[in-house]
Amino acid sequence: MRRFLDRLYAASGVLAAACLASIAVMMLAQAAMREVGLLLRGADDIVGWLCAASAFLALGYTFRHGELVRVGLLIDRLAPAARRRAELGALGLGVLVAGYILWASANFVYESWQFEEVAQGLIQIPIWIPQMSFVAGALVFFIALLDEFVVLAAGGTPAYRCAEETHRAHPEAAEAP
User: Fold this and answer.
1) How many distinct structural domains can be found in the chain?
2) What is the pLDDT along the chain (177 residues), one digit of tens a residue?
3) 118 pairs with which residues across the strands?
4) For helices 2-35 and 128-153, what crossing angle results, to 10°?
5) Which residues pair with 87 in a beta bridge?
6) Which positions ≥6 away from 31 have C-beta within 8 Å?
7) What distance in Å separates the CA atoms of residue 135 and residue 112, rounded to the nearest whole number?
8) Taking CA 43 as the corner, what is the angle to CA 41 and CA 47, rounded to the nearest 5 degrees?
9) Which domain holds residue 83?
10) For helices 80-114 and 128-153, what crossing angle results, to 10°?
11) Angle 136-139-142 (CA atoms, 0-180°, nearest 5)?
12) What is the SS3 assignment for the chain?
């Protein structure tokens, strides 16, 4: 199960990176075409969808690697037992919020599909297609939060804490270009 989850988080991170690379390609193509007097229609729509996809698909991966903003400034000052309880509470609340976001986004995308909504920009495609990246990212983030909650509740060390400790032990690795 651990191997599957780690691969899921890595795949989500790779997809987010691919979206960022695609944004760069689209923008460079748009600039190059503009120089020769051509127009890349719909590029703004595609770049907008890719921006949203990269942001949401990266959530689970960045959380697991200790790169998301958390309440560490407060929690790090607590005694170990109090820290564990505070982390369990924060992760539990995070699971609830992420679960709601997942449910709401899936419901929103389902309604877009059900009513056959079409994108309003130059590219006329069913809007649920680019919106699915939001649902996929919310799902992976929900799973990552639930995963860390279960690990901590079972007495283990969450992956984000291991990543933070590695960053603290080797700060030069985090600052390398």
Assistant:
1) 1
2) 899 999 999 999 999 999 999 999 999 999 999 999 998 888 999 999 999 999 999 999 999 988 876 667 788 888 999 999 999 999 999 999 999 999 999 999 999 999 999 988 888 999 999 999 999 999 999 999 999 999 999 999 898 888 877 877 776 665 544
3) 126
4) 150
5) none
6) none
7) 13
8) 165
9) 2-175
10) 160
11) 150
12) CHHHHHHHHHHHHHHHHHHHHHHHHHHHHHHHHHHCCCCCCCHHHHHHHHHHHHHHHCHHHHHHCCCCCCCHHHHCCCCHHHHHHHHHHHHHHHHHHHHHHHHHHHHHHHHHHHCCCECCCCCCCECHHHHHHHHHHHHHHHHHHHHHHHHHHCCCCCHHHHHHHHHHHCHHHHHCC
pLDDT for the residue numbered 123: 86
Cβ contacts of 91 within 8 Å, gap of 6 or more? 145, 148, 149, 152, 158
Any bridge partners for residue 126, and if so which? 118
Residue 40, phi then psi, degrees to nearest 5:
-95, 95
**Six-digit token string for 22:** 């695609």
Position 175 scores a pLDDT of 53
- pTM for the predicted model, two decimal places: 0.88
Q: Round to whole Å and give the CA distance between 16 and 47.
A: 13
